[in-house]
Specification:
12 helices, about 375 residues, about 20% strand, Rossmann fold, about 50% helix, globular
Length: about 375
């Protein structure tokens, strides 16, 4: 009997020890889960558009650390999981699928490329997972109830740019040379349609593939047509267009889109960028002390001037933090809360969302002067 009791006691002790271990382990895991809230970010971190994604990630990380230092999301640390889509729609869709099925994040920031956002949208809609994208294509506006943008629609930029070009600069004949993707095609179409409504004439319009570096054939045609302006919605290709236009002696008003504000374009085109104009969502020359403080922090941390896409990302993460504090990880609540964001202060101005999930925010017109990006016009400057 004593031997049996001894064995029973040993078994009971072992069982008690195992139960205690499992309780401690389970409590430890639960405690860890309670301490953080994770979101996804899909960006072009490598490839032809990798620089834009790197700028955005740097800014997201700066904002994330600030948010966590201020108490996080109701005491939980905010964590961002990144996926590189290389500006490829298939990769973006795969990343979105991973976020909703494996990581089960409550919201995704990105992507940056319009074609990628459009590839993510059906997955977001099916799984009721909100996306806060940084992309411009007008197609995104009607891509779903869970799709939001922190960057304005391309038509929103052009609403300010085209009247300025036509009325203030007296450009009434135009050539268009645009990148052949969702972004470029939409920019070209919207510009042409609106420009013609004002009474302008488009004398040349042609697409090119992303990554093209030789534009001499197209520019020679443009030179023979002598338009008063050339619209070039493109990425770093704009640098080659501007450089080769100068080499060919083309003297006309070049008009870019928001991606023109890229230091690499200045390096590629050199003096060829002088006088080029473009619409933008960020005014680093604003007298707002919050903007100046942000620009100084960014430069001190990363050793470079603040860039507009980075500024949008910074504001975007603060919007996400704002709704997460209201909703936790409830996706439906997050969606509704973003629709409710109105006049949310940030470094790119006050941010509001319309009933299609599109952002409403100030737009300025910028230019290149003496080799530097400068603000040329603000809505209140006339």
């Amino acid at each position: 009997m004593r031997k049996i009791n001894h064995k029973s006691s040993a078994v009971l002790a072992l069982i008690s020890l195992l139960i205690a271990f499992l309780m401690v382990f389970s409590f430890g895991c639960a405690k860890k889960e309670e301490k953080e809230i994770k979101i996804g970010a899909i960006l072009p971190l490598t490839g032809q558009s990798g620089q834009y994604g790197q700028w955005i990630r740097d800014s997201l990380e700066m904002a994330r650390q600030e948010i966590n230092n201020q108490g996080g999301i109701n005491g939980k640390k905010l964590l961002i999981i990144y996926e590189d889509d290389q500006a490829d729609p298939k990769a973006a869709a795969n990343a979105m699928q991973k976020f909703v099925t494996i990581e089960k994040v409550p919201i995704v920031f990105g992507s940056w490329a319009s074609s990628c956002v459009l590839a993510q949208a059906p997955i977001a809609e099916k799984t009721h997972t909100p996306i806060l994208a940084e992309a411009q294509s007008p197609k995104i506006r009607d891509s779903g109830d869970y799709i939001f943008r922190i960057q304005p629609d391309s038509r929103y930029y052009l609403k300010y740019l085209i009247p300025y070009v036509y009325n203030n600069l007296n450009v009434h004949t135009l050539a268009i040379l645009y990148v052949n993707n969702d972004y470029g095609v939409d920019q070209a179409k919207v510009f042409e349609d609106y420009f013609k409504q004002l009474g302008g004439k488009v004398v040349f319009s042609e697409a090119f593939e992303q990554g093209t570096v030789d534009f001499r054939t197209q520019l020679s045609k443009i030179r023979s047509l002598k338009p008063q302006g050339v619209f070039i919605p493109a990425y770093t290709e704009a640098g080659y267009i501007l450089r080769q236009a100068r080499e060919l002696g083309i003297k006309t008003q070049f008009i870019g889109s928001a991606p023109l504000e890229n230091p690499d374009i200045l390096k590629i085109a050199g003096i060829g960028t002088e006088g080029a104009i473009y619409p933008h969502h960020f005014d680093p020359e604003s007298s707002d002390p919050n903007v100046q403080q942000f620009a100084e922090k960014y430069k001190h941390r990363f050793g470079r001037e603040i860039e507009g896409y980075a500024a949008l990302a910074y504001d975007g993460l603060y919007v996400i933090a704002h709704v997460l504090k209201q909703c936790g990880e409830d996706r439906e609540c997050i969606k509704n809360a973003i629709y409710g964001v109105q006049n949310f202060p940030g470094v790119t101005g006050l941010t509001s969302f319309d009933d299609h999930g599109d952002v409403i925010k100030p737009i300025v017109i910028r230019t290149v002067k003496n080799g530097k990006f400068r603000t040329l016009w603000r809505p209140h400057s006339g």
